[in-house]
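Hi W.,

Here's what went into the run:
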Amino acid sequence: VKSKQWLESINDRLSRQLLFLIEADRLKGVIRGNRIADGSRRENTAEHSWHLALFAMVLCEYAIGDIDVWRVVQMLILHDLVEIEAGDTPLFDSQAALDQAERELLAAIKLFGYLPEQQGTVLRATWEEFEAAESADARFAKALDRLQPILLNHIVGGGTWTDFDVDESRERALTRRIADGAPELWAAAEAVFADAVRNGWLRPMPQ
Amino acid sequence: VKSKQWLESINDRLSRQLLFLIEADRLKGVIRGNRIADGSRRENTAEHSWHLALFAMVLCEYAIGDIDVWRVVQMLILHDLVEIEAGDTPLFDSQAALDQAERELLAAIKLFGYLPEQQGTVLRATWEEFEAAESADARFAKALDRLQPILLNHIVGGGTWTDFDVDESRERALTRRIADGAPELWAAAEAVFADAVRNGWLRPMPQ
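Here's what came out:
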């Protein structure tokens, strides 16, 4: 941040909030494995988070249990913010997944720490609830986070399935939590897998 | 969309909702005038919309009137979706602004028309409420939409202010609606303007 002089001229609380929002801008530079739908480039995590919030608004009727869509959307807006510090961990990268939880917790402490204390605590708790994937809201949010890249991989004709030479059984195992949050969306994902296998974009299960 | 065969194998309602979400992906390719905070490239409208949703979550305490933050966030997630069809209209481009409302209304009819009828009507009404800028929710959402590029222009040392040779009085006139939605955020914007003038990133008012 060039010249933060003006931040010193406003009150401390608002100054911390604006600094957090400026730091959060870095999420636009975190690049994910999957491509955007036109295939022109990889997706960044900020636009991915927007897309998921829209998924929640449109698909909330398919959630299992008594969900609060507003809480789901808050989780989705916040869910990958830690990647600013910890980087994106691709679903198919088992090595990076080993210390992912630790790296992300340290990132959360740092990032939410920019905010006024009570506000930072509330937002961090929302992120932790998402991570725990236990509440109905979190399970639905996690389901959407798995569903969106499946649609994008299909549209671009392979995407990370081809990049990581994924077969259908591994893909199903890694995305099966969609069924926990929204069974009808899991049925749609199964239709996508079948079509992707037919087209040669996803390797069939070993016979 | 390559091969929509799988969409035909699921029920019509969900199929329309997924098609809408896939079309919405194009917002990631709509490029705005202002840059992201690291100055490396221009911002796209999808990541801009995510950033604004986060602004609303963090800054809602500064809104005037009795707002519902969840409605504000819905507006912000949807507010620029019409740009998929109508393109982005930069704040400083008076020519493009002439037929902006008409172009955007036609875009809204088309885009929200992908959804099941009742759902499309509700989302379109939310967007129209934002556009009208009359309710407390819409006024706060509009204020955030003006505030965010001010912070980004300052961070990159000029941005669209330099590109369009903007002076402080014109910038104030175009962003004054921040004061309608959140006076304390307008005070922060004034501190940014003063610092930007001091640094030569925003032309001072003509004497």
